[in-house]
Structures are given as structure tokens and as C-alpha cells.
């Protein structure tokens, strides 16, 4: 397991760098030029037609730096959750393999545990780091040393509980991102309101264009951040649910395929 920690950290760093490059490239080449064209067109329409009501444009809504930061964090969170989902899928594939080939009516004695451990020990180091091989190997070793089926059941339950805690702790970074996204949106709100207050004297003189634009920054940043946060939190809960179900299924798998066939 220790060998996977640096690899996952490198994945997190590079996924963040790639997210920044992709989102910033889209903003520089598409979003901000499009928003500038829309604002210029709306200004021309307002000057020519006092009754003109400008329509909300997606380019204008998401053009500011706070929205860009929120999209970067969203893509980063998607990449992290995608890695966790892929890992969960690999765990389920491992569960479908016949790691303990026990036929109907055959019991496993303490003397047989070495033979049943060999298929698991023949797996690669990466495959042995998955939950089901770890639980099965620990259960067989425990049964060989104690010859007590209750101790084996306790060992399986303890490993599954620790795995639940580990998976939950690994989602801490995604939870932080889900918290940071609306926080950045609120920062945009504060910045927009501050700019609007700084231009209050212009509104008193009858020029409300600057105040309106600054308030637009405030509301747009909050709107985009909360919308992204809803999507990220939904996917996070789905991922957490799939991981919890994986641990429960792994415990049931070990009970059905191993513990029920043990005979002391």
C-alpha cells in the first residue's frame, strides 16, 4: 500500500496542473473573447435602442476569475473521483475471481490454509493490495495460527472496518474542494459588491452601468459556484456510497466463500 501513495500524490498534482491548463486555455481562447463580443454588442444595442433589454449570456455569466477557479476545482475533483471510481471498479473485478477455489461440500482445515493461500500469493503486488485478497490472506493466516473460526470472522470484520475508515479519509481532499468552490464564489460576491460600492458616486450622478456590471460579477460568481458545488457533492456522495457498498460486499463475499467453509 505504501508504494501506491507516491503514485496517487503524483496523479493529484498532475491532474491539477492539467485542469489549470485546460480551463485557462478555454477561458483565454473562447470564454473571455466571447463575453467581450457579447458586451460590445449589447452596448451598441442599448445606445441605438433605449428600450432594448439585454439577454443573459453564458459567456458573461462565467467570464470572471472566480468562475474560472471554480471550474478548475471542478475538473480536479472529477479527476480525483474518477481515479477512486476506477479503483473501486478494479476491486469489484478482483472480487469476481475465484481466489479460494472451494467446491460444494468441501471444508477447509487449518492444515489446508497454505494451499489455499498460494493463488492469492501468486497475484502481483498491486493486485494483493486490493481489499478482497488482503482479507482472504489475513483470514487464512489467522485460521492457521489460531484454529478458531470466530477469530477469523473478527479479523475479517476488523479489516473491513479499517478499510471503510481509510476510504473515507482518502476523500478528504475532494470534500475540501467541494467546500472551497462555494467559498470562492462568495469571494467573488464580496469583490463585486466592493466594486459596486466604490462606484456609488457614479450611480448618484445617473451612471449606473459600472454598478450594474459589478453587481453582475457578485451574483454570477455565487450562482456558478453553488451550481458546480451541487454537481460535485452529488458525485461525491455517489462515490462514497459505492465504496461503502464495496466493503460490505467484500465482507459478505469472504463470509460466503471462506468462513462458511472453515472447519476447525
UniProtKB/TrEMBL annotation:
Topology in membrane: Multi-pass membrane protein
Pfam families noted in UniProt: MotA_ExbB
Transmembrane segments: 9-30, 69-86, 176-197, 217-236
Keywords: Cell membrane, Membrane, Protein transport, Transmembrane, Transmembrane helix, Transport
Subcellular location: Cell membrane; Membrane
Assigned GO CC terms: plasma membrane
GO biological process, one term: protein import
Organism domain of life: Bacteria
Similarity remark: Belongs to the exbB/tolQ family.
Protein name (record): MotA/TolQ/ExbB proton channel domain-containing protein
Originating species: OM182 bacterium MED-G24
Lineage of the organism: Bacteria, Pseudomonadati, Pseudomonadota, Gammaproteobacteria, OMG group
Amino acid at each position: 500500500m505504501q508504494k501506491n501513495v507516491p503514485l496517487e500524490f503524483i496523479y493529484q498534482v498532475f491532474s491539477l496542473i492539467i485542469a489549470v491548463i485546460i480551463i485557462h486555455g478555454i477561458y483565454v481562447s473562447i470564454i473571455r473573447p466571447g463575453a467581450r463580443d457579447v458586451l460590445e454588442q449589447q452596448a451598441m444595442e442599448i445606445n441605438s435602442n433605449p428600450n432594448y433589454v439585454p439577454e443573459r449570456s453564458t459567456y458573461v455569466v462565467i467570464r470572471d476569475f472566480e468562475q474560472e477557479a471554480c471550474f478548475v476545482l471542478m475538473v480536479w475533483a472529477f479527476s480525483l473521483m474518477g481515479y477512486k471510481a476506477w479503483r473501486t471498479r478494479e476491486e469489484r473485478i478482483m472480487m469476481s475471481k475465484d481466489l479460494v477455489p472451494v467446491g460444494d461440500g468441501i471444508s477447509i482445515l487449518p492444515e489446508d490454509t497454505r494451499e489455499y493461500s498460494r493463488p492469492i500469493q501468486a497475484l502481483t503486488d498491486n493486485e494483493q493490495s486490493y481489499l478482497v485478497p488482503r482479507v482472504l490472506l489475513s483470514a487464512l493466516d489467522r485460521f492457521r495460527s489460531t484454529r478458531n473460526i470466530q477469530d477469523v470472522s473478527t479479523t475479517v470484520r476488523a479489516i473491513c472496518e479499517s478499510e471503510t475508515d481509510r476510504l473515507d479519509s482518502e476523500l478528504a481532499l475532494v470534500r475540501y474542494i467541494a467546500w472551497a468552490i462555494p467559498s470562492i464564489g462568495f469571494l467573488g460576491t464580496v469583490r463585486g459588491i466592493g466594486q459596486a460600492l466604490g462606484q456609488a458616486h457614479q450611480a448618484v450622478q445617473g451612471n449606473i452601468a459600472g454598478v450594474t456590471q459589478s453587481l453582475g460579477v457578485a451574483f454570477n460568481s455565487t450562482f456558478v459556484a453553488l451550481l458546480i458545488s451541487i454537481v460535485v457533492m452529488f458525485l461525491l456522495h455517489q462515490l462514497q456510497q459505492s465504496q461503502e457498498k464495496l466493503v460490505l460486499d467484500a465482507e459478505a463475499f469472504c463470509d460466503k466463500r471462506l468462513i462458511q467453509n472453515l472447519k476447525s
